[in-house]
Structure formats: structure tokens, C-alpha cells
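User: Modeling request: complex.
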Amino acid sequence: MAAVKETVDQVREIDVDQYKYGFVTDIETDKAPKGLNEDIIRFISAKKDEPQWMLDWRLDAYKRWQTMQEPSWARVNYPEIDFQDLYYYAAPKNTEGLKSLDEVDPELLRTYEKLGIPLQEQEILAGVSEENRVHTKVAVDAVFDSVSVATTFKEELKKAGVIFCPISEAVKEYPELVQKYLGSVVPVTDNFYATLNSAVFTDGSFVYIPEGVRCPMELSTYFRINEQNTGQFERTLIIADKGSYVSYLEGCTAPQRDENQLHAAVVELVALEDAEIKYSTVQNWYPGDSEGKGGIYNFVTKRGDCREKNAKISWTQVETGSAITWKYPSCILRGENSVGEFYSIAISNGRQQIDSGTKMIHLGKNTSSRIISKGISAGRSENTYRGLVSAHKKASHARNFTQCDSLLIGDQCGAHTVPYIESKNASAVFEHEATTSKISDDQMFYCRARGIGEEEAVALIVNGFVKDVIQQLPMEFAVEAQKLINISLEGSVG
Amino acid sequence: MTLTVVKTPSEEALAALLDGAQAALPGKDFASVRADAVEKFRSEGLPNRRVEEWKYSDLKRVMPKDLSLAGEVSADEISKQMAVVPRLRGLDCDRLVLVNGVFRADLSDLDALQGKVSLTPVSKALEEGAFVLDELEIAKGDRALTLNTALLQDGVIIDVADGVELERPIEILSLMIGGGMATTRNRVSVGKNAKAFILETFVGDEQAYQVNEAIDFRIADGASLSVSRLLSEGVNALHLGSTTAILGEKSHFEHFTMSTGGQFTRNTAFVKFTGEYSDAELFGATIIGRNQHSDQTLLVDHAVPNCNSKEQYRTVMDDKAQGVFQGKIFVRQPAQKTDGQMMSQALLLSEDAAFFNKPELEIFADDVQCAHGATCGELDEDLLFYLRARGIPLDKAKKMLVLAFLAEAVEHVSNDAVVEALEGFIADWLGLDH
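Assistant: Request completed. Predicted assembly structure:
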């Protein structure tokens, strides 16, 4: 009942402007010249003070990228992107060589405060734990445009042996780990955007959980695009060593601008024997205005590799933002008995276009996967679920269950389902079911007859529709996600 | 400048065949339509796995290098083959026969059909300039249909007049003998409030041959059409089939496909609703073994409100066989109150078999009920145990379960005699007594 009340309050609170995070932070930045060429890559690499091998890796990726073509198979339409008309590096000035949070530009700290992301460690200890007694601490890595500005709780994590730092730092501090795992899940040449990312990635998080360690707190990265005409290319690499566990959260916002901005990230997860990684995303990039002007192009490659036996990777995502989303968090189930999960809520309103889903690639014996996808389309948006479930010859007794449901609100939107189910092993058992419908008159009547207003009734039914996925989110995100869902659908009824 | 992509030996062979055949094909008025299709083929080449619709059925890879048009055959040879090819037997129906892509009036039951329906060979319509391609929007650009147009030889046009109810099924039997390529296009128009049952049979000898056939169903308001299609081609055959159907108001269309034969079979159905309150039911049963490849692709276009479509396909694969199901329910914005249900189920009997399933929904209307389901797995151990515990040997128990699995799709056929014949056909294929 609490969730319902929350929803109702939230709906009431909403003003005309739906996107709360559309402000711009006025902060001096250090930018690379516009455009992309080898010199820009050398510039980025030099800025990050990278070793030669990293630069070579980038240049190699750039060479490959020049030979590649932008993919066109997704159900999304957008004008051609001029890759030479973007800034590939933008950093708030004075971020280099900071010793503590006190040295961070106060303007920057205020930005994160406005976004509701406390970077001050003491604040978290005092504020959050009082308000929400269920959970205590979350370590945050805040990425502003191209650089990571602050990572909290580093010391405490270090005691547990956990490495949580910006990837640019990891390249220098832990080159052997980075070299061993970077590009091992998403190869440099994987796809157009992943290759571009490999050439120009600027920052992101690096996580290593040592053998047998259960990460003592939730890890979180908060991405913010601020600068105009910039692309954000972050790279995240998470390695869970034998028998370890980590839960990682990711959040994103961007200012309201009339131009489209590009976000092309790569996330790689590696789970070794008996390890488990839980990766949750609440994606709330600026979706553009109601006429489809502006907004983020979110072209992301996310993949997890259950490399050894009994590994488990679980993706949970709430997608409400971005003008265009092109994203397929996947699991390679290589180790025996490994498990992959994908829980998704994708909400599109206005003129948003979403083409998202997952890939579950069963390579090992007794691997199992589960896909729950809930798509909600409203306004004039297009929402596509595109997913692959495949069992290779050796994947005996692989098991998959897929459920993808779509809800249509309004008669100008579209909901599409494109599943690919490929079985090359007789003992693999795959089940897939999908439905598309609108909120039924009966459900509405039931609510209305009990004195619930139209908008509240919709919120109530939608909350019920997405409940299966919300339940999978960590507490911190569940509340936020629920609010976000209501905001996203505001104005779509009646 | 024309972009030429034709490059593999089989594409070159096919291009040469297309060019060489043009002059001898019937119909002067149709020549420019053919020429456009040939040009289109030259610019596209054969479909391969890089073409989304052909992702799992790579025609470029399987098209042979040695291509020629199928030749003429003697009456003796025809009757010899008719006696041995696997097909539905003992059915009471009126038969129209095409041999190597040519309509054979001499072998068809024309007298029996006299007065009931109007019949015209496609070659005659082409010569008279009366044959017009009437392509569905959703079928436009289909690669198999392009080739069909480029090489169209013959076929039959059946018109069932308004209000006529045919008692006996009409069978259109296509027989291939001696190898080579044949291209046909049939057309069945069912008038207002008329009723008909069409049986399509495709059979042939063991030579390597290629069939590209299309059939257009035009179902007028209030009409009802049932179609059962049996693909029982020879072991070395390559079969490309395209069905298009346009449904008028308050009409009913039932379409069943049984696919067992051929080396490589691709079967596409395009169905479009143009009038409200109509129903389409599409069912299929496929059973393949060896290294056979069978592809069932369908696209149902809900363009108007208040129509129902139901699809149910079952596929069984043994040995190294590969099965493909691609289905799409497409609901346009005006098509409110659409009910679309699609189900594809597959059974893998061997470690080396593979199944590719792609059931799609593409929906632009909000007040709809659409669902699809897909399953894939092996025979249920519990069911096998149940039968074996009753003294039935493993092999026979498996066959019984396979028959039962497919029979669920077969039983949707509205003609009992055809259901019985189809079940008998499957039992024969399995080597099961019945």
C-alpha cells in the first residue's frame, strides 16, 4: 500500500516540466578540440597519462572503427550522426590531483547534491541511514562528462580488498588486471559503437572483488553529461573473482538541450567460479521534449561473461530516459551451471524510441537463464524488445524462460517484440511468451468504482504491471525507479 | 549505373538462366514486368543470411551451380511417378495437374469441374495480356516472389463464383520429373459468400530440381476458404513457396501446411485483412530428418479493426535437420480490437538437429490482444515412461508421441477426410502402423 501512496503523491507533485534534471552546471571545462582523429586519441591518452600499451590499444581500435559501418538494423530512426562534430573529451577544470573531496569544485558538488547523489561520505552516513534504515552505505563513483570526479568510501573498500576506482586510475595502478580483462568480454571489434568507445573512452569505473569476498556495500556510478556537443564514452569493467559477490548500481542524467548528444558506453562483467554480479541501472538521460527535439542517443554495449562454473550475472534495468535507446545487456553462459538473468522495464513516452533487450548465450552444460521484460509505450513513442536466446551444441540441459509483456497507453504509440530463439541442443528447453495489450476497461472500472481517480488508477495498474522487475532492484533504486516510472508516464493519460 | 552484385557461380548460373529463358516465356505484355524482376535480381543477388528475412535460410549457399529449365515428360513417365510419390491417397477430390511447371489439361479432371468453377491456365492469361500481378504491400520486394515473376511459366486461375459452395475439394497437384527448374503461380478467387476447399500437393522424383511456386488467394466478403498444403517433394528438391491471401469482410480463411519433403524448403505466407470481422487461422506441421532444412515464414497484416488471427505451428526435427519458424503479427494503427495469437512449438529428436524460432509482434494500435508463445525441447521423459511401462517399445513410443504432437496441429483442418489422410501420411512417414 505504501508504494501506491508514494505513486499517488508523486503524480500529484508533478509540474508541467517532467524532466527534473535538465539544468546545466556552469563550470569551466577543459575540452579537446572538436572532431575525431589520431591526435585526439593521443590527446585523451596523454591527458589520462596512460601507458603506451593503452594508447596502442586505442589507436588499433580507431583504425578498425574507420572500416566499420553504423548498424541500421534496429527499429530506430534518427538523422545521421556527424562524428566529427562532437567533443570527445570534456573535463571540469581542476580535477587533476585532488586529495580529498574538499578540493572538488563546490559547483560540482552542488550539482550532485541537486541530483540527489551525496558525494560527501559523512552525509551518507548521517542522512541516508536515518531516513532509510534498511540499507547503510553506497560507495559512489561520479563521472562528470569525460572524467570521474570523485569516488567515495575508497578506504573502507580497500580494507575488504575491493578495488573500486575510475578506470583511468586502474590503467595505471592495476595494469595487469586491466590488460587481462579489458576487451575480453566485448572485443574491440564487437560493434561500431563498442569499437568507437574502445578508441575514445574517457572514464568509467573499475571494480575488482577478490576471491571469496562479499563486497561490504553497494557500489554505484553516477554518470552526468553536462557540456554541450559532447559525447560520453565511459567504460566499466567489473571482475568478480572466485566465490565473490557484488551489487553495482548505475544512474545517469543530462541537461535539457536542443541538440542530440551521444552516449556510447561499454560495460564488461566477468564472473569467475561461484561468483555473482548484480548490475542495476536506472537510466534517465534527457529524453528530448514532447516534439522529439534534443535528447540523448544512448548506444550502449553491455555484456557479462559467466566464465567459470556456478557463476551468476543478473541485469536489472529501468529505462525511462534517452531519445533513442539501443541497448542489449547480455550474458555469455560459458561455465557449467551458470545463471543469467535479465529484468527490464522500458518506458517510452513523447517521441522516444527504444530498441532494447538481451542476449542469453548458452555455451555450457546445465546453464539457465530468465528474461522478464516489461515494455510500456505512451505518447508517440516506439518501444521494441529484441532478444536472443541461443543454445550451442554443448549446452546440454540449458534452460530458458522468457516473458515479455508490452502495455500500450494511447493509440499513437507502437510496441514490438522481436525474439530470436535458436536451439542446437535437443535437451535444451526454451519457453517464450509475450503479450501486448492496453490497460483493460475492466481493470480501470474496478479502480474507478472504488473511488480512485483516472490517473491514479493508471499508476496503480502500471505499478502492478512492472512489479516483477521492481522487486529485483536493490532498495535504493526501487523507490527511485517507482517514482521515475510515474514521472515518465505523466501526461500520457486522458 | 546498375549496381551488379551477382557474383557467386550459382548466382551467375541463375542470371544466365533468367536471360536465356526470357524469349520463350509466355506473354508479350508481361515481358517488361519480367525484365524489371530480372534487373532486381541482378542488383540483389540471392538472399543469404545477411538479409534479415533469410537469416536462417541461406538460399545463396544452397542454390546449385548447374541450373536448367525442367523439360517435357512422357505420359508413361508421369503415370509411373504418380503411383510411387508419397501423397494423400483415397481422397475424393477434383484434380488439376501441373507437370514440370506446366498445366496439363490432359491429366486434369476438367469435366468434373465444368460448370462449378471457371478455369484459365496462367500461360493463356499471359498470352492474352490478362494476367496482372497484384502484389500485397507486405510481400513487395520478397526475393522468392521476384524470382517467381522473372521466370513465371504457368499455373491455373480458379474462379469460384459468388454464392457457390463447392462440395468436393479441388486438388492442385504439382509433379516434378527429371530435374530442372519450374516456376508457377496459381490464383484462387472465391466470390462473395462462396465456399471452397483447396488441396495443394507438391511431389517429385529423386532428381535435383527447383520449384518456385506462388499462389494468390482472394477471398471476397462473406466467403470461406480452406486450404491444405502438402509439401512432399523429392529428397533432392529445393522448394520456394509463397502464399498471399487477401481477406474481405466477414470472411474466413483456414490454411494448413504439412511439410515433410525436399532438401531445402522455404514456405512464406502473407495474409492481409482488408475487411472487418474476418478470421484467419494458419496452422502447420513439419517433420523432417536427414539434413533437411525447412523454413516456415509468415506475416499477418491486420490493416482493419475487429479481425482475429490465430497461428499454430509445430515442428519436429530428427538427425541433422534444421527447422525455422519466423512469424510476424503486424497490427496497423487503425486495426483496433485485433486479436492475434501465435504459437510455435518445436521438438528436437536428435542431438544434431537445430531449431530457429523468431515469433514477432509489431503493434501500432493500443486496443488489441496479441500474444505469442514459443517452446523448444525434447520428448517428455514422463510420457515416454508411461508408454513404455505399458509394454510399448521405445522406438514405437517415440513415434506415437511425435504423431500426437503433430496431430494437434493437423486436427484444425475442417475437413475430416483430409485430417484422416494427413494423419495417415504422417504415420507412414514415421513408419508407424495405422
